[in-house]
Specification:
single chain, 455 residues, alpha/beta, 5-stranded parallel beta sheet, 5-stranded mixed beta sheet, 18 strands, disordered N terminus
């Protein structure tokens, strides 16, 4: 019990250090508390064992309660890639030990499935949840693996156990029920749910990718992706970060409200969508709400508040596939090629009488963004690049569709042509004669007619 208390106190220190902006790789054995495990950790362990310095929070590599020569042996094996197990801090800052090598993985939801493609470990995946199974365009290989049901609401624990997995990668940070129902199976919430696009170097998302690189012996692929992700974010920040507040449009970002819904659900600071607006050079109107800084993701507001704020732009999120595996209307994302559903949804929203006098509605500055631009490993970055081109076409030099295509080909390994497939934002960007960004180019004539009709 005393040692558990010491561990929890140490983890509290780690949380404080991470929040200060200093990146720490949360793997036990990272004795010098930096971003990797290497010979410097062995040197630090020798100093601790010789009583020349106090133990650090991650020095106990085998988590047996003592810092000794066995921890040096464990770190040496981690460096050489021969360790028999690895203890990490999960996305909830709790220790979890995973036996290695990891050969059989069950994967929940799109983010984790994306990471399996990024880390080139799809051959290790033996089962997927319903959301992945229903997304064949994005996951042509993984969608054919054994489906273990809607892990969010109706998990098929018997099916999961029948697959004899070495690891279950979960999307939700609530893991207790799955741990109880899957004895002997490590249930890992890595932390992909917390991307923090404004501070990616120290974000839980980046840490999760690195930790999974170690867990799955894919450090090089993990690091290549991280450097691309952070580098792309920094390029976007360079083009929009210096835009003064006076030139940043006000933006309402909200879930697309159904015809019967009277309330509007906007998003708090913690949500990826808020970071997307900031990265794109906008200012979310939700920032002044009392609940904006709280840990809840969605904030319910009424139409009167929207009318009072009267934002310059409205961005509505249309979820493509839910965590429970429901494919939603309007069709969007990788498995949709026809933007007609998005067009009709937009027309339905702007025709609602309560919003008719909003400046965004009158100026044609209402957009619907596919949920694929919020979830999945890199889509917040790509969604921000699309919006930056809308908010600041002269300053935003990054071509979002080129960025998107690079990600799909280089990291997901997909033969997927964005000129022909996918519906990600509506109205789309008009890049040039016959060229659209966000929907297939074949709809250029339809968009040109729509623009002419509005003019």
């Amino acid at each position: 019990m005393r040692y558990q208390i010491m561990i929890m106190l140490a983890l509290s220190c780690l949380i404080l250090q991470a929040s200060s902006g200093e990146y720490i790789l949360h793997i036990f054995g990272n004795a010098n508390m930096d971003g990797t495990i290497d010979q410097e950790d062995i040197a630090t362990l020798r100093e601790i064992i010789s009583n020349n310095m106090s133990p650090t929070e991650l020095a106990d590599a085998n988590l047996d309660g003592e810092v000794d020569l066995q921890d040096i042996a464990q770190v040496e094996m981690i460096i050489n890639g021969t360790e028999k197990n690895l203890t990490i801090l999960d996305g909830n800052n709790l220790p979890i030990t995973i036996n290695k090598p990891v050969e059989r993985i069950v994967v929940e939801y799109l983010d984790n499935a994306d990471l399996m493609q990024i880390l080139k470990r799809t051959d290790k995946v033996v089962g997927v949840d319903l959301a992945v199974a229903k997304s064949p365009a994005e996951f042509p290989e993984l969608s054919n693996r054994t489906c273990v049901g809607a892990m969010h609401k109706e998990p098929d624990y018997e099916k999961v156990l029948s697959l004899d997995p070495d690891l279950l990668l979960v999307f939700s940070n609530v893991t207790q029920e799955k741990e109880r129902n899957l004895p002997g199976v490590p249930v890992l919430f890595a932390g992909l749910y917390y991307p923090d696009l404004l501070r990616p170097e120290s974000s839980a998302f980046t840490d999760a990718v690195r930790k999974l690189g170690y867990v799955l012996d894919a450090q090089q692929d993990a690091e290549e992706y991280i450097q691309w992700h952070i580098g792309s974010l920094n390029r976007l920040i360079e083009s929009t970060g210096s835009i003064p507040d006076s030139k940043r449009p006000t933006v309402l970002v909200a879930a697309y409200p159904g015809a019967e819904e009277k309330s509007v659900f906007t998003f708090a600071k913690i949500d990826t969508l808020t970071s997307i607006v900031d990265l794109a050079g906008g200012r979310t109107v939700a920032a002044e709400l009392p609940d904006f800084m709280k840990s809840t993701y969605r904030i319910e507001v009424d139409p009167e508040w929207v009318l009072q704020e009267d934002p310059d732009y409205i961005v509505l999120l249309a979820v493509a596939t839910t965590y429970s595996g429901l494919v939603m209307d309007p069709p969007s994302g990788y498995d949709a090629d026809d933007p007609t559903g998005m067009k009709e949804a937009l027309e339905a929203f702007v025709s609602r009488p309560e919003y008719a006098n909003l400046r965004a509605v009158q100026n044609g500055d209402v957009y619907i963004l596919s949920g694929n631009m919020r979830n999945d490993a890199s889509k917040g970055l790509i969604g921000a690049a699309y919006l930056a081109r809308i908010f600041h076409p002269d300053e935003a030099e990054m071509d979002p569709e080129d960025l998107h295509q690079e990600y799909l080909q280089k990291f997901l390994g997909l033969d997927y042509d964005l000129d022909q497939h996918g519906v990600f934002i509506y109205p789309p960007l008009i890049k040039g004669p016959g060229e659209l960004g966000g929907v297939p180019d074949s709809y250029y004539e339809m968009m040109a007619k729509n623009r002419a009709a509005v003019a």
